[in-house]
Amino acid sequence: MSSSSSAIESVLVENRVFEPDARAREGARIAGMDAYQALCDEAAKDFEGFWARRAREQLQWTKPFTKTLDESNAPFYQWFADGELNASANCLDRHVGTPVENKTAIIFEADDGTVTHVTYKELLARVGQFANALKAQGIAKGDRVVIYMPMGVEGVVAMQACARIGATHSVVFGGFSAKALQERIIDAGAVAVITANFQLRGGKEMPLKAIVDDAVAMGGCDTLKTVLVYERTASAWNRVEGRDKTFAEVLAGQSSECAPVPVGAEHPLFILYTSGSTGKPKGVQHATGGYLLWARLSMQWSFDIRPEDVFWCTADIGWVTGHSYIVYGPLAAGVTQVVFEGVPTYPHAGRFWQMIERHKVSVFYTAPTAIRSLIKASDSDAKVHPKNWDLTSLRILGSVGEPINPEAWMWYYRNVGGERCPIVDTWWQTETGGHVINPLPGATPLVPGSCTLPLPGMQAAIVDETGHDMPNGSGGMLVIKRPWPSMIRTIWNDPERFKKSYFPEEMGGRIYLAGDGAVRDAKTGYFRITGRIDDVLNVSGHRLGTMEIESALVAKTDLVAEAAVVGRPDDLTGEAICAFVVLKRGRPTGEEAKAIANELRNWVAKEIGPIAKPKDIRFGDNLPKTRSGKIMRRLLRSIAKGEAITQDTSTLENPAILDQLAETN
Ligand code: WTA
Fold first, then answer.
1. Which SS3 state, helix, strand or coil, does residue 135 take?
2. 27: left (phi over 0), alpha (psi -120 to 50) or beta
């Protein structure tokens, strides 16, 4: 039995329960299940009042709101719509004149281990100066700005500076290709791109600015006027006169004081592209007020953040986790956080543990994929095992992005948390803006592999195709039945797709469909996420659409006639990408097949990014199709897993193709 199937088995029979210890409970904001239940009851009794009170307590409004939730144009829900505020002021200015002002906001550790501390006051000055520089470039409220930056203080400053002047940022992960970047610049109608000459990761210098040039050279970026370049390294880069300016050039002479521009609560704070079940990535649009409320409050509830904490979220600012739990939540909550430029395995796979010791991290938030790869590394090299470092500063551990298998959970709990630290397994999505289902460290008894219960105010449920509740113990579709402040507002440029993707008519058009399958425990009602039910894959916690990868493959028109992509379970990356390809020429075998598979992998990396490279590529004379020409993906999924086909294949036009595709080359 492979370890992934044993992992699934042990989820099903999982009956270990870990109660929060006294240290986690003492002084906790939500201490004990009664306190949790009281908040849930408050939300159930007076839903709008519950959120209105939180929004008034948590945020500083320049104009108070009078209406909490507007459902008149559902599912285009609006929250606190007549209120005004500024997100950057709520992350930085709010701390001026408080003890937080002189506290370290960011401990930046560079790829090479160099450490820089930035206080809240200093960060405010840097954001103000950068905001003034953006204004001097003619960038104003409502403009869209694409940010294509490495991990570092500058990326955080760029995002906060956009928010300060009411410009809507759209961060593109630094691992995405020129093509992906071009599509996002065009769809967002960006007037500027903020980038760096190079990024440093794992001791290697990789171009960023050159990729921006490639993206623009592909054409169509007609709205783009300015490219701002942070010179991360001393290496030379190619300047496009009139369009490109360095950070040093635009910052020179700018004052560090810039009054934050108040915006309506529904003003788009950012657009973040994510994969869906059709080819084109979706621009998930988030609103300023509701998003920020939840970024701050979920920091307090889920991580029970305290003034002396050192928080570290290892995500990249290119993903939603980096938005909510690096750029907005921790700053709004006034916590000290670590920002890391590098990778967990450089210069050795003990880097995370070494950094926790070095910076006395107390709340650590990472992804199951990272944990699994570090388990593997420390199994083969005892020198990088967490036991070699002092991790006693840790108080709370978090997990995000994919299901955490109980084995990885137990290892994390024992070897990193020393059996003292609750593991907060957080289920949420780009669309939800922040946490939806997770334990509260001072309250919820933990079960490895379960994200436990919804946060107060979050009406998560499991339903059938028609939106009716499934009984506990039976699996179904994960939904959220009532709107919540940090929810997606629309898909940028595509409101129809927003309605269709998330609020299906069959369920009445008002229930948010997450796209995940889930089951609640028969006794405890605890949720366990079983994975996506649509054509979205989760590879190392990165979200990718199968159609997106298929489109990339068939775009290689000189070679590929047809392609189908499915996921299969993978011990390390959670899921792995498996592509079935029909070439325009005959089916290759042996060395030729290997060479073409490599060529296609590199092609996909160029079209989307290295994270989308298929692990397996299999060639066939055809794909398994029904008589009406529909590709039978469930058969491909079985083949990808190496399973014998037990499904009914009688509707198949070409059953013989299954044996051919099952051959590994
Ligand atoms: C998956 C990342 C199980 C899920 C924050 C979801 C999870 C998708 C968990 C969203 C978890 C995220 N347990 N699965 N704790 N967290 N997922 O938009 O399939 O990049 O739909 O947001 O990741 O991925 P996204």
1. helix
2. left
Question: Which atom of ligand 1 is nearest the CA belonging to 430?
Answer: 18
Closest CA to 569 of 596, 600, 605, 531: 531
Q: Residue 496 to residues 76, 380, 430, 511: CA-CA distances in angstroms?
A: 11, 51, 19, 16
Tens of pLDDT, residue by residue over 616-652, are 999 999 999 988 888 888 899 999 999 888 888 888 8
Which residue minimizes the CA distance to atom 7 of ligand 1?
402
139: which 2 tokens? Answer: 């960038």
pTM for the full model?
A: 0.94
**Closest approach atom of ligand 1 to CA 399:** 15
Give the residue among 332, 335, 336, 322 at the shortest CA–CA distance from 295.
332
**pLDDT tens figures, 517-568:** 999 999 999 999 998 998 899 999 999 999 999 999 999 999 999 999 999 9
Residue 560 bridge partners (DSSP)? 583
**Going by CA atoms, what residue is nearest to atom 22 of ligand 1?**
429
Smallest Cα–Cα separation from 166: which of 84, 105, 227?
A: 84
User: DSSP of 407-433, one letter per residue?
Assistant: HHHHHIIIIITTTTSPEEEEB--GGG-
| Residue with CA at minimum distance from ligand 1 atom 24 | 429
- CB burial string 564-587: b at 16+ within 10 A, e below: bbbbbbbeebbbbbbbbbbbeeeb
- The ligand 1 atom at the shortest distance from the C-alpha of residue 425 is 15
For ligand 1, the distance from its centroid to the CA atom of residue 483, given in whole angstroms, is 19
542 alpha carbon – ligand 1 mean position (Å): 9
How confident is the model over 63-101, as pLDDT tens digits? 999 999 999 999 999 999 999 999 999 999 999 999 999
| 368-386 b/e (C-beta count within 10 Å ≥ 16 → b) | bbbbbbbbebbeeeeebbb
> 141: CA distance to ligand 1 center in Å?
32
Question: Using alpha carbons only, what angle is made at residue 197 by residues 193 and 203, rounded to the nearest 5 degrees?
Answer: 130
**Cα 488 to middle of ligand 1, angstroms:** 15
CA of 400 to the centre of ligand 1 (A): 7
pLDDT in tens, 574-588: 999 999 999 999 999
Nearest Cα residue to atom 3 of ligand 1: 403
